[in-house]
Amino acid sequence: MQTTIRYFASVREAIGRGSETLDLPEHLRTLGDVRAWLTQRSARHAIALTSDKTLRMACGHVMAEVDAPIVPGCEVAFFPPVTGG
Asked: Record's CDD domains (predicted)?
């Protein structure tokens, strides 16, 4: 399944790109599966996606938890927590 993965803020800086479109293996079912698979792509991915336990995720522009299912065609995003004021 071809999916666009977007990286924001410190995650983008650590990986060195804002997005990539990848063919995800069929066995990936959840956002957690995608995150784990991405950590194997490069050392930069591993550092960016495992160093922050509070990393947030979204699927289809909706905040989601690690066990959320991957919906075909949805855009996946990873970003650090944000605060406002």
From this structure: Ubl_MoaD (cd00754)
- pLDDT at 52 > cutoff 70: no
- Distance between CA 45 and CA 35 in Å, rounded? 9
pTM: 0.90
Helix (H) or strand (E) holding 47: helix 43-50
Contact 66, 34 (CB under 8 A): no
E strand or H helix at 34:
helix 31-38
Choose among 46, 41, 63: nearest CA to 11.
46
What is the crossing angle of helices 43-50 and 31-38, to 10°? 140
